[in-house]
Specification:
CATH class of the largest domain: Mainly Alpha
Helix content: over 70%
Largest sheet: none
Order of helices and strands: HHHHHHHHHHHHHHHHHHHHHHHHHH
Distance between the termini: 63 Å
Structural class: mainly alpha
Number of helices: 26
CATH architecture of the largest domain: Up-down Bundle
Number of strands: 0
Shape: elongated
Mean pLDDT: 83
Strand content: under 5%
Radius of gyration: 29 Å
């Protein structure tokens, strides 16, 4: 009974991830129901192998296929697979099958109660943990951004780092939205959640401001060559902002935050140096002065946000004006669709999850068959390794296979030494528990280390139960190597899901989201008034889709070179989308924080032209299938209109019509960014129109 309880709790634990309490509870409950059903079925699988293999494959496919309903469903699926595999490992000799299954379910409910109780004992834990990680990632993003100031020999490498960190940040932002917005909706006006929600909003805005690039890199490089002190000033200021974010992450509970004095002094120094630069040669370098002022203005906004974050974490009393509208916040949450029709839509080889489920079913049957043929001591270890390692993507499966083998070998070596030194079974039990805790805590951050401690834990447990521990270690290593090899081979050659087959969809989704963001910005700039929620929602969607595109490209880069079809062009499309989002963030940040002039006819005309180019490129992208496209490309098959405008000329006209420096800065930034956006739209149009569609 005790062992059944333990199995139930362990199998339901994967669903206990950061997020809204209600959804977490539902996930654990569904896991509990699934493992009861699977354990009940598995208990009666003592049948001839000729019947067992197809049933095993069918059950594996059905359970894995649950993942079509999103991330939390994939965790429930993993619980079911564990229950299925381990039903082969443990057969109760004193309990009936139905009793064993029910006790497993009771263990799952026990874990659900403990998880819920822990939430009410420490309801702030997951919020603080996720918020701390977001602070650290934002600080790292700013630090890499600092390195990009001035001429850099490895600018491409730094930009890749930015894209990677941005993807991680977007994932953390999604988790925080779920925790803070849904928790707030369910619990009413919680003062704690209101403050953390405002902090989260400021961190999102800091990311956007950091991504925003209000200057031309080439012009900035040329300026900092002749004025290196300005480069140093900017870098020092950004470095201090990054350092203070790090300090806040470590001391958010103690409220011992860094002083604002250093920030203020460094900002004043930078401001004075820029004014000095203006006085030295006003007419010749006025454009550069405007560029510096816009960059300075962005750092000023970052400092204001940082100061407000410190104020919010200092436990102030909030007024009704500080609170965020709950109904508007709901628009930022995208609910998972659980329509049964999704099952039918995914029953084809076009679905990555369908192919993965089918591939996993074959790998499990193959692994179990090898274990029986060669009469291994624990053949279920092979299929357990397959379940843990195999992922829909080739790159991740390859990495996990390698890490699993290396981790198992290291763990086996360490455990072998300790088993010969230590003879106390109670000490074995204690070390097994400690190793398991360490393994679970590291499974997301360092899978190789996690595999090492899992192996140590398993060996210590068997050291208590069996005297011939060397044989256990030997089979553990052999089974792991076989399972990892099967995982790699089947993922590589059995219905592979190469990234180039789907990356076209990621590119079009990112482009569509960027276009919606651009339309919202253009409309807001022309109409003025309060900042519409739709603009913020479109901004969020643009960042999410850009993160998805970056992740898809990273997976593609990990795949065999023979499967990296048109990777240079695809990389260029990824960079264009990222640059487009950066430019949009620059305009959006400026117009949201300043009173702007009326939009001119030139602005409307250029905006329409950018929109036209992007819509045409989007149409081409929808027609391109990177899986079947002709490998040869030709010259662009669409004519680019002769539409030219000079950002400098439009800026000079605005300067000549007004003596207001703020108006000059607005004109410089808006026309520079519009020119850049138009150039990017032309580049994308040329790139997408050159493919010969079969």
């Amino acid at each position: 009974m005790g062992l059944s309880f333990c199995f139930g709790a362990i199998w339901c634990s994967p669903s206990d991830v950061s997020g809204n309490l209600k959804q977490k509870q539902i996930g654990i409950l569904f896991s509990s129901v699934l493992v009861v059903i699977i354990s009940f079925i598995g208990g009666y699988l003592a049948i001839p192998n000729i019947l067992l293999f197809p049933i095993l494959g069918f059950l594996t496919f059905c359970i894995a296929f649950i993942s079509i309903y999103g991330f939390r469903a994939s965790l429930i699926s993993f619980s079911g697979l564990l229950a299925l595999i381990l039903s082969f490992a443990h057969t109760s000799k004193t309990l009936e099958v139905y009793q064993y299954a029910l006790f497993i379910g009771a263990g799952g409910l026990w874990y659900l109660c403990l998880s819920t109780l822990w939430y009410f004992i420490n309801p702030k834990a997951q919020t603080e943990e996720t918020l701390t990680e977001t602070f650290l990632l934002t600080a790292n993003f700013l630090n890499v951004r600092r390195e990009l100031i001035g001429e850099q020999p490895d600018r491409v490498s730094l930009q890749k780092q930015l894209i990677t960190i941005q993807s991680e940040l977007t994932e953390h932002h999604e988790t925080l939205r779920e925790i803070l917005i849904l928790s707030r909706k369910n619990s009413g006006k919680s003062n704690y959640h209101n403050k953390r929600l405002l902090v989260f909003i400021l961190l999102v805005e800091m990311l956007e401001t950091a991504i925003a690039n209000p200057v031309n890199y080439q012009k900035m490089d040329a300026l900092f060559k002749v004025q290196p002190e300005l480069k140093i000033d900017f870098q020092k200021l950004i470095s201090e902002i990054s350092s203070q974010l790090h300090a806040i992450a470590k001391n958010s509970r103690s409220e011992a935050f860094p002083s604002n004095k250093i920030l203020t002094e460094q900002f004043k120094t930078l401001e004075q140096d820029i004014l000095k630069f203006k006085k030295e040669d006003h007419h010749k370098d006025y454009e550069r002065y405007l560029m510096l002022q816009n960059l300075l203005d962005y750092q000023s906004k970052q400092i204001e946000k940082l100061k407000k974050i410190k104020w919010l974490l200092g436990n102030p009393v909030l007024t009704s004006e500080d609170l965020v509208n709950k109904d508007k916040m709901k628009r930022f949450i995208v609910s998972q669709d659980y329509d049964p029709k999704i099952i039918l839509r995914n029953l084809s080889f076009k679905s990555t999850i369908f192919k993965h489920s089918l591939r996993l079913a074959v790998a499990v049957m193959l692994g179990y068959g090898i274990g029986l043929v060669f009469d291994f001591q624990n053949p279920y270890w092979i299929i357990l390794t397959v379940i843990v390692i195999m992922r829909p993507s080739y790159g991740l499966t390859k990495t996990r296979s390698k890490d699993r083998i290396i981790g198992t070998l290291i763990g086996a070596a360490l455990a072998s030494i300790l088993v010969f030194i230590i003879k106390d079974p109670y000490l074995f039990g204690g070390l097994a528990v400690v190793s398991m805790v360490i393994a679970f805590s590291m499974v997301q951050k360092n899978y190789k280390a996690s595999a090492t401690f899992i192996t140590i834990s398993v060996i210590f447990i068997y050291a208590i139960l069996q005297p011939d521990i060397l044989k256990v270690i030997q089979f553990r290593v052999i089974d792991t190597v076989i399972g990892a090899t099967i995982s790699f081979i089947t993922t590589r050659w059995l219905w592979p899901a190469w990234s180039f087959m789907e990356i076209g969809n990621n590119i079009t989704d990112a482009l569509k989201a960027n276009m919606a963001f651009f339309k919202s910005i253009s409309t807001f700039y022309q109409n003025k008034g309060p900042i519409p929620t739709s603009l913020k929602v479109n901004r969020k969607e643009a960042f999410v889709q850009m993160s998805n595109l970056s992740s898809a490209f990273q997976r593609m880069a990990q795949e065999p070179q023979s499967k990296q079809t048109h990777i240079d062009d695809i990389y260029e499309l990824v960079v264009i989308n990222h640059s487009f989002l950066s430019s949009l963030s620059s305009i959006n940040t400026f117009i949201q924080n300043h009173n702007t002039t009326a939009a001119s006819n030139d602005f409307k005309q250029i905006s329409d032209k950018i929109e036209s180019n992007i819509n045409t490129a989007y149409t081409y992208l929808k027609l391109i299938n990177f899986e079947t496209i002709n490998s040869k490309v030709g010259t662009p098959n669409t004519k680019i209109d002769d539409f030219n405008f000079s950002a400098n000329q439009l800026t000079n006209i605005a300067i000549s019509q007004s003596n207001n420096e703020h108006t000059h800065r607005e004109a410089h930034l808006v026309w520079e960014q519009l020119y850049w956006l138009y150039s990017l739209s032309e580049k994308m149009l040329k790139l997408t129109s050159k493919y010969k569609i079969d």
